[in-house]
């Protein structure tokens, strides 16, 4: 069976002047010979004319770095046969659209796997999970598909202008960087925000500090935002009191290199001239 595939693949690779109809016929014939599945090489022109992206799959073209990495890999090593573009019998892409666009931009051929398997959705999902996308790219992908909380997550990020780390700390109700299983849920389209009102409340409290920085956006800094989130989780912390204290001590408010150092500054400001028991913000770090 594998030998048959190799023969068909090598034949298609060398016959670069075949017409589109001949290419499709060869693909279908090979599919019949290999139990509804075939891997075959398509030269650049046949790839462009025969294989079509799925119009319902709006890939994140803003994540052009991923396509650039694929193009660099293709230039250096050629197209890897172990990662074919997966298409159905209608020759519409089910998995591998970024690889397809990288090949088009490089004017490269590609290995194509045609499958009539009912498990194409699973193949596509596995292909997605393997992609080295950034967190925001995964969120945009799922938001574009209208999945769960993802459209609202995009609205949240755009409303407050936080970076992705700060946004996800707030939405995941964390006071430090999110654990890896949160990012696994993000990639898999399974991340949910448990309390949106609480998330908006926390975001507003962080933004309250912007008025006291020389650069208001400094309050968006990951380490400072994490320090504020720790304050908000600390029993006995009074945010209005903190703002009153910061107002008369704003000269002390400067970004520090990590969360602990930012917390120590906030703790010092909060406890300034405070009678009785001091509030300790740096416990359990």
Supply Rg: 27 Å
Helix content: 40-55%
Secondary structure category: alpha+beta
Low-confidence stretches: 1-9, 11-21, 28-35
Count of distinct structural domains: 3
What key phrases describe this protein's structure?
single chain; four-stranded mixed sheet; alpha+beta; 3 domains; 285 residues
Can you walk me through this structure?
The structure is a single chain. With 285 residues, this protein is α+β, with helices and mostly antiparallel strands. The chain folds into three domains: 2-129, no CATH class; 134-194, no CATH class; 197-285, no CATH class. 53% of the residues lie in helices and 6% in strands. It is built from 14 helices and four strands. Helix 4 packs across helix 5 (97-106). The model is unreliable at 1-9, 11-21 and 28-35 (pLDDT under 50).
Give me a quick take on this structure.
The protein has 285 residues and is an alpha+beta fold. 53% of the residues lie in helices and 6% in strands.
SSE topology sketch:
Layout: H1 2-14, H2 20-33, E1 37-42, H3 44-50, H4 64-77, E2 85-87, E3 93-95, H5 97-106, E4 110-115, H6 120-129, H7 135-144, H8 150-160, H9 164-171, H10 180-187, H11 196-207, H12 222-233, H13 239-248, H14 259-271
Parallel strand pairs: 2-4
Antiparallel strand pairs: 1-4, 2-3
Helix pairs in contact: 1-2, 4-5, 7-8, 9-12, 12-14
């Amino acid at each position: 069976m594998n030998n048959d595939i190799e023969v068909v693949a090598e034949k298609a690779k060398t016959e670069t002047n075949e017409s589109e109809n001949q290419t499709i016929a060869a693909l279908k014939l090979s599919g019949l010979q290999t139990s509804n599945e075939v891997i075959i090489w398509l030269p650049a022109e046949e790839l462009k004319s025969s294989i079509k992206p799925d119009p319902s799959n709006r890939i994140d073209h803003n994540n052009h770095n991923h396509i650039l990495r694929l193009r660099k890999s293709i230039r250096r090593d050629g197209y890897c046969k172990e990662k074919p573009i997966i298409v159905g019998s209608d020759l519409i892409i089910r998995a591998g659209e970024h690889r397809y666009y990288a090949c088009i931009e490089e004017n490269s051929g590609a290995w194509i796997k045609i499958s009539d398997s009912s498990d194409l959705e699973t193949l596509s999902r596995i292909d997605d999970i393997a992609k080295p996308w950034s967190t925001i790219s995964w969120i945009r992908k799922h938001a574009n598909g209208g999945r769960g909380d993802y459209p609202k997550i995009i609205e949240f990020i755009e409303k407050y202008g936080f970076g992705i780390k700060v946004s996800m700390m707030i939405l995941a109700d964390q006071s430090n960087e999110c654990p890896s299983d949160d990012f696994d849920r993000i990639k898999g389209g399974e991340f949910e925000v448990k309390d949106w009102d609480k998330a908006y409340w926390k975001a507003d409290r962080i933004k309250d500090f912007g008025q006291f920085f020389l650069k208001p956006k400094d309050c968006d800094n990951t380490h400072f935002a994490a320090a504020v989130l720790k304050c908000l989780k600390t029993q006995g912390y009074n945010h209005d009191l903190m703002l009153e204290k910061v107002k008369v001590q704003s000269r002390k408010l400067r970004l520090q290199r990590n969360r602990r150092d930012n917390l120590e500054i906030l703790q010092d400001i909060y406890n300034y001239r405070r009678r009785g028991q001091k509030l300790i913000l740096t416990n359990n770090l």
